[in-house]
Every structure is written in C-alpha cells, then in structure tokens.
Amino acid sequence: MSDTTPAIPVPMPPPLYPPATSLGARITQLATEKPDAPAITDAAHTLTWRELDRRTNRIARGLAKAGVKVGDVVSIALPNTSAYLEAAFGLWKAGATPQMLSYRLPAHEADAILELAEAPILITDGSVESSHPSYSVEALLALGEDDGPLEDVLSPCFKAATSGGSTGRPKLIMSGSPGLAIATGGGVYRAGPDDICVMPGPLYHNAPFTMSANVLTQGAHLILLPRFDPEETLKAVDRHKATWLYVVPTMMSRIWKLPEEVKAKYDLSRLHTVWHMAAPCPPWLKESWIHWIGRDAIMELYAGTEAQSATIITGREWLDHRGSVGQVRGGEMATFNEAGERLPLGEIGEIYMRRPEGAPASYQYRGASARTLPGGWESLGDIGYFDADGYLYLADRRTDMVLVGGGNVYPAEIEAALDEHPAVQSSAVIGLPDEDMGNTLHAIVQPRGDLSEAELRRHLENQLVPYKRPRTYEFVEGNIRDDAGKVRRTQLRDERIAAMKKS
C-alpha cells in the first residue's frame, strides 16, 4: 500500500430532505408532516413539531425586533433545555448564526468570546453576566407575538463554536457551511424519523449541539438530559425506549463503573446506535461497551470542529483494529514529522488534514490562525499513525506530549491505565519541570471512594514501563474534566508550577 491514505467511500443513509432545504424550512416541513408527534423532551416538558415550529417563528420575529440581522452571530448561554434549541432554530429562521457559549463561564471569559463574535445580543436565562444586551427565550417569545409562517431566510453560517484549545485562549470556529439542514451531517449519524435519541452532553459543546440539530432535522424525537448522570442516562434510555445515544469516554467510564445490579435494572436492548467521540477512549473501556451493547451499535467518530476531514469506525471493525479511530471517510489525512515531511505508514507523527480537492473552506477562525503545511494541509495538534490498512491510531495532542529523560510520553496512555482502576473516577497526567529528567510525570486523580497512592502504583506496575509511571500523585474531589470529557492540561500544569514557586 502507498503512503497515501485516500478517503474510503462508505454508503450512508441519505438525508430525508432536498440538499437545499434550510434548517428553518425543515422544521416547518416536519410540523406539516407530523404536527402532534414529539420533537424535543427535556426535564420539564415535551414540545411537538407544531409547537417547535410556531415558537421558533415567534423567536425569529423577536430577534428581529431586538436588532438581530441576517448574518449576525448571536451567543446562546443556556442549560440543556428545549429553550437552547428553540433559540438556535429561531436564529436560523432569522438568518443569523448561533454561537454556543457555556452558561457556566465567568463574566470576563464570556465577554471575551462575545467580543470575538461581535454578538449584538446574548440569549441567556441570567446565568451569565455580561455587559451585552441580554434576552431570555421567554422575552424573545413575548417580543415576537406572531407565530405564523415566515419567509424562508438562509443563514450564511451554520454555527460558531467556541474553543479554548490547549492554550486556554478563546477562539471561534465559524462554519464554512450555510444554515442548510444538510450541514448537520445528513444521514451520517444513523438517526431517522422513527428514532428516539438521548443526549446527555452539554449543548454548548460542538458535537452535542450538531448531533442534536442533526437528529431533529432527520425527524427523530430528541430527549435532552439537564446534565450527565450515569444512572439517569440509563434510566432515560429505558424510560423512553431510546434507540440512539451520544456519550463521551468519561461518561462511558462512569456508566460502566456503576454496580452491576444498577446497570441490570435498565433495558438498553433497543439501542441500535451509540456514538462516542471528543476524547480518546481507553481500549479496555471500548471493548467492554462493545460486548455489552453490541459490536454493530458502537460507533466512533474522530474529527475537529473545523470539519476538514473525519474518520469513522464501527465496533465490529474496532475488534479487528483494536485502538483505532477508523478509516478516513471524507477529505484526506496524513502524518508529518517536525520538518514537514510526510511519514510512511506505521510511523507516529502529527496528523494533518485537508478538504477534498475543489471543496470550499469548511471553517474560518476568529482569534486564531491554523497550523498549516504547503498543499492545503492543516493540523489540529493531534499525534498518531496509520496502519497498513489505512486505519488511524491516536497517540495524544502535540502540546500535551511530555519529554521525560529524552523519551516521548503521551499522557492519554497513562490516563487510560489509571482510569481502568475501579476506584478511579477520572484522571489527568501532566509534566512538571525537573532538573535531572527535564520533566517528571504528575498524576491528578479523582477517586471513587477509598484509594491510596500505593494501590495505584501497584496497579500500574504491570501496565506501564517504569518511565511512563507517574512519580507524584495528587487526589482531588472535584471534576478534572468538563462535561464533554475534555481536560485542559496546560492550565493544570501552569497552576501547579505557580504553586511550586510559591512554596
């Protein structure tokens, strides 16, 4: 096989609407087809398709009265309720772009992102303080007054996602696609009009937002959980007879570590698709889920919000390519060394992506610039390699790699080994400065119950070579990772180095 890793065409179900259908028009179409069927269920109530269409018509009119124009970027900072998606579809109907903003951000971080977005207003329930004019969804509904049909308007930009990356500096990733229903992914995510989809992920993150919009444009019934809780997620799948579920590896781990008698209480047999993404999944955990839910149900996607390219792998494929995130399904990917030279298959290097030849730009940054190589290649900072069959294996992020005594150590590998211990809820590994070795490995561990450093050291003895074992340990009570399972190792490292200097 040559060094190139071409995209592999894989048949996917087509979208259930013409490619030129706007997101707003698709909701109106579904309201006509099945007006009284459930569209979104949250912790408080269920909206039918007719109600969703009419409420988003009013919101769109309210947005116009609040000064929002076609092409504006408007930030949404709300918890996981139907109001979040009502705001988004109202913005699309108004020709504007939803910008996903965490409702937990402190005021100074929120204002920095709002300045980048040049947002004329902020849609929030008051949980985010900002100097920008703010409206709740209820206020926009009151402004809108009329819920009758709207003229179809197309937003020039589907979404604006927020990313702090490994540096913690905010940037916006503006989608290169207009607000068409096809921009949410079409039939790729295996959801259809008869599906019931459970979403425990926070809508201010890209994947939960995009996939929620996707299942709705496919006509599925979306179940929104207010926050992730391992047993409540299983309970929702059972109660609603769900067929589709989104998780990240942190969620998978916390669900898997529930007592067996708790997991056995809930019927998951109707699940035909469980998607996971957003962070590396430890092989032991992935294999456990494959044997539990089924090899044809577990699906993994690797891509960036930038959407230049993507890989997908089924559970059945994964068992033959343990640890892989799949083959390239769109665009191109390849690995390069630090000199910018393309590496042969099997060699670890930085992963670069590029869009199919002739395709328009898939994104635009605000507040950052892309890491590029000649020929249209762009990197998201991940490290990995391709095998002889074109399957990609991730090592870690370039900025998270730790140099210990001249050897490259990837924290994700150590974290996977730590998290396999039944008393570990979550972990993060960072490098701390050391005069002798350059860096030493420091493990930050969130335990589940009683756990000692000595027990963890014994646990790692048969899993990792000595230079990959942490020298120091720190036990913390709070969550190390955010709701999407992501961790800011640079921030963790900077905080600990600052504390070392003070002591």
Summarize the structure.
With 503 residues, the chain is of the alpha/beta class. Helices cover 28% and strands 26% of the residues.
Structural write-up:
The protein is of the alpha/beta class and 503 residues long. Residues 6-10 have low confidence and may be disordered. The protein contains 14 helices and 26 strands.
Give short descriptive properties of this protein.
alpha/beta; globular; 14 helices; 14-stranded mixed sheet
What is Rg?
23 Å
As residue ranges, the low-confidence spans are 6-10
Instruction: Look at the structure and give the mean pLDDT.
Output: 90
Count of strand segments: 26
Structural class: alpha/beta
For the sheet with most strands, the description reads: 14 strands, mixed
Strand content: 25-35%
Bulk shape: globular
Mind sketching the topology for me?
Elements: H1 23-33, E1 38-41, E2 46-48, H2 49-65, E3 73-77, H3 82-93, E4 97-100, H4 107-117, E5 122-124, E6 134-135, H5 137-144, E7 160-163, E8 171-175, E9 196-199, H6 206-217, E10 221-224, H7 230-239, E11 244-247, H8 249-256, H9 260-263, E12 273-276, H10 283-293, E13 298-303, E14 310-314, H11 315-320, E15 324-330, E16 332-336, E17 349-354, E18 363-366, E19 371-373, E20 377-386, E21 391-397, E22 402-404, E23 407-409, H12 411-419, E24 424-434, E25 438-447, H13 453-461, E26 472-475, H14 489-502
Parallel strand pairs: 1-10, 3-4, 3-5, 5-6, 9-10, 9-11, 11-12, 12-13, 25-26
Antiparallel strand pairs: 1-2, 7-8, 8-18, 13-14, 14-15, 15-21, 16-17, 17-20, 19-20, 20-21, 22-23, 24-25
